[in-house]
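User: Structure please.
Assistant: Input sequence and predicted structure:
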Amino acid sequence: MTASLIATLPPPAVDLFIQRWQKAGGSERANYQLFLTELCALLDLPLPEPAGDDTRDNAYVFERRVVMRQPDGSSNNGFIDLYRRGTFVLEAKQTGKTLDSSGWDKAMLRAHNQADQYARALPADEGRPPFILVVDVDRNIELYAEFSRSGATYTPFPDPRSHRLRLEDLRREDIRERLRCVWLDPQSLDPARRSARVTREIADRLATLAKSLEAAGHPPQKVAGFLMRALFTMFAEDVGLLPARSFTDLLLSLKDSPLTFAPMLEHLWQNMNVGGFSPILRGNVLRFNGGLFSDATAIPLDRDQLELLLKASQADWRYVEPAISAPCSNAPSTPASATSSAPTTPRAPTSNASCSPPSSSRCAANGRKSRPPRSPSSSRASTARPTSRSNTSSASKAKCSTCSTTLANRRACSNLKASPSTRTSSSASRSTRAPRRSPRWCCGSATCNGTSAPTAR
């Protein structure tokens, strides 16, 4: 028998525990403390402590007393079947009803509501624990969590489909480890913390891989597209869109032969683009639309690069934040005709700040339609045509701008630059317009003719 198979088998003590309690009967009070004590011993957990008269000392005890306040102002004592401060409130029942029947569901729901009331009745300085456990002695354990500990509703953990643990489930190492964490480190089970930790670890590896590929001369956009397809493939195998561990096992099989990595991965991605039988995975694969795998190009990797990709694939992608693969259709390195998206890599920014919107687009800040810039011809200030005021007031005083000859017949000098006038508008609305400019005139003589350079004035 191989070592890997032996590692997956439950220890003999687990089978003995299951066989012992499958035959149990009797009442809740007769069995629940013994059942929980033996469960703690099986999982190598600390055993409950003797209870004292002062509840402040009863941090991990059976029958922890709490004061239940009633709406009419009265109070009475309640007793938590098993309490571990800062960790859980446990309510035990021995229903004797058929599992998953309507009567059994109602009995477990009543036990949950009772445990919830106990949790809310705990002293404020102790706070509410992150977990509520409801135990049907010798048959079932239900987990409910509220990690904020702020008085919100306790919800099934990890989800409504798998929060119920049967006695036979104790043969699974992941279930035993989950219960150990509930006892010893409940906050480590918080999906938000776990998601942040897993995402951070994977992002570091992928950033290292991206830098390595770009340093080898691969274009950033090609690297981004390759990583996006790889990331989605890892996610697909962990959520059931591909056979479990199929991509990870493929990477493991190629670890010692990296030269075959690129052609085999390209073949897999081609299969994922059209669907059907995949010789690489030795089974049928779904068709993934959206165009992500229409370009099935894979970048050849060396041993070190393949090891980084393998470590990222071995993580549980159900807990990875979506931001790690945020689309970037407006990356500066993306050609205008490109349609693929790029993941978040050191060279694939997610911002589109470098993209200039068209003049008729709506402004995202205020929702108003932005105006196109005013063309020079539409400006109220003109450098080639004097205003009517200038024509009438300076008719007798106009002189040639070059030779200062008094002009009888004026014509605009096309080669002389107009200088701004010192006149300004008092209207605030005109403050941003171009200043008025005084016209320049030419006498039309052969020596001037509007062609001479202007003299300093």
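The chain has a mean pLDDT of 76.
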